[in-house]
Amino acid sequence: MNERIIINPNSPVTCPDCSQEFPLLQGISQQLIERFEDEYEAQLGKERDEIEAKASEKAEKRLARKFEEQLADLTEQLAESKAESEKSIGKLSKVREEATAKAKQEFSGELDLLRQEIGEKEIKLEEFRKTEFLLRKEKMELEDQKNEFKLSMQRQLEEQKSALRTEISQEYQMVEAELRKKIDDAHKANEDLKRKLEQGSQQLQGEVLELKLEDMLTQTYALDQVVAVAKGVRGADVVQTVMLRSGTVAGKIIWETKRAENWSNKWIPKLKDDQQNTAGEIAVLVSTVFPADVNEPFIQYEGVWLVRPEFARPLADALRAILIEAARQKSVSSGKNEKIEALYDYICSPQFAQKVRAVMDAYTNMRKDLDSEKAAMQRLWKKREGQLERIASNVLGICGELQGLSTSNLPHLEDIAPLEFDTEES
Fold first, then answer.
1. Residue 365 lies in a domain
2. CA torsion sign, 371 to 377 to 379 to 382?
3. Residue 313: which of 362, 277, 274, 270 has the closest Cα?
4. What predicted TM-score, i.e. pTM, was given to this entire model?
5. How far apart are CA 330 and CA 328, in angstroms?
6. Is 308 inside any structural domain?
7. Residue among 209, 402, 232, 410 at smallest CA distance from 310
């Protein structure tokens, strides 16, 4: 076996020749050091493996002994547990037998009690059955009495109804006649009102427009002479003679009214003839329809003023102002031609247009007030018409109820139902 000496390479050594000290590492070559180092590592690894193998063998032996000891302990404990289990099984069997005997004894006592309770309940049930039978019997008797009472009450009610029908038939014979009279009067009044509201010929409508125009001229111009041409007399409808405050005649305006659906070209020549016959300065046609090419509210058309009914008053104010101004100019002017030129200049002047526009604005405001009043009157008419409808409906309802009470005793009420009552809006 080779011997190895492990020394520290830094250990100092002395040279035998010169007695100089130096580290051992400087006196040994590096190759020799590496070779001894490898051998040392190999030797060290071999020894380590041997030590580990011996330690592993000792550990396995120690574990085997310990396992055998634990196995012996477990075998001993298992034997003891088995013995205790057998003892417990015996005790359990004994306890079970004792519990079974005790339960049988207790169940026998409870069974006797249950049998006793069942017997008592059967007795009570029999009593209940008897009581139920008696109650059902009494119930049937009460139902029979109730049905008998209902039948008696029904007979009495029928007798009272018959007596009431006879009494009503005798009492309302006069009422029926009065109702029929009221129904006839209401029906006639309703027909008259409807006819007055809806019916009307063109001639009547024209007369209404003429009367309205005449009333407007009379109330607006108290100084003027407004004369309506009688029916059948040739001429315009209304002749207005414009008067000054001094009583001097300023001129004449002739008015013709037309309320139709279509325009007629014969109206203008006829109005011009009436103007010549009356010696009127201005002719005005108040019409609800204009020629197809005219869209203005008022216009001078073929020498005649055309105006719609709602603009008649402002135009009358303007034309009357023209005649009055012409009369005043006539009083201060001597020449006829100069007067005509002055009148023409005035008509064409901006002042005249401004006055006419101001008159039109005032008229528009008055027209709105008139429309509001007209709407209020229409609402009043609708209210009266609704009252008539409710009267007719209530009367018919009364007749129907009377017929329902006594159809055989009041056959003449059947003549009231077919009466015509106008319920549509007029």
1. yes
2. negative
3. 362
4. 0.34
5. 5
6. yes
7. 209
